[in-house]
Design a protein that fits this description.
Layout (H helix, E strand, L loop, with lengths): L1 E7 L11 H4 L4 H15 L1 E7 L3 H13 L3 E5 L8 H7 L6 E5 L21 E4 L4 H12 L1
Parallel strand pairs: 1-2, 1-3, 3-4, 4-5
Helix pairs in contact: 2-5, 3-4
The chain binds 1,3,4-trihydroxy-5-OXO-cyclohexanecarboxylic acid.
1,3,4-trihydroxy-5-OXO-cyclohexanecarboxylic acid binds next to loops.
Length: 142
Amino acid sequence: MRKVMILNGPNLDQLGTREPELYGTLTLAGIETLCKETAATLGFDVDFRQTNDEATLIGWLHEAAKSDVAVIMNPAAFTHYSVAIRDAAAMLTAPLIEVHLSNPIAREEFRHTSLISGISKGTISGFGAQSYVLALNALAKL
Ligand code: DQA
C-alpha cells in the first residue's frame, strides 16, 4: 500500500474550538478520521501527525525525504515565514501537496505569501476539512 504522510503545523491541534468561523468545528481527530476513510478508498496508508514545534516538523520532512514518501502538509503559520520548513520540504523526492482549511489569499495580507507553494506540486485552500480530501484525491491521480 502506498504511504502518505499528512503533516500539520502549529495550533491545528486546537481545531474544534479555534476560531470556528474560519476553521470550522471539526477537530483535528475528526480530520484524521476523514483522511483515513478517504485514504482507504484510494489505497493509501496514512500517517497523520501534528506538532506545534518547527524542529519536529523539519525532522518529519527529513524522514519523508529519506523514505521517498508523499506528503500532504498544512504548515499553518509556518507557511508564511519559515524558510527552514521550506528548505526541508524542498528535499522531498515524492510529491508535496500544500493544504489549508481557510483561503489565506482572502485573508490578511501577511497570509498572502506562502514559502511552501513554490516547491509544492499544488495547493488546495479554502474548502475546510475537504481540502485534505481533495489533496488525497489529487495525489491518487499523480
Ligand atoms: C491555515 C492558514 C494559516 O494562515 C494559519 O496560520 C493557520 C491555518 C489554514 O489551514 O487555513 O494556522 O494554514
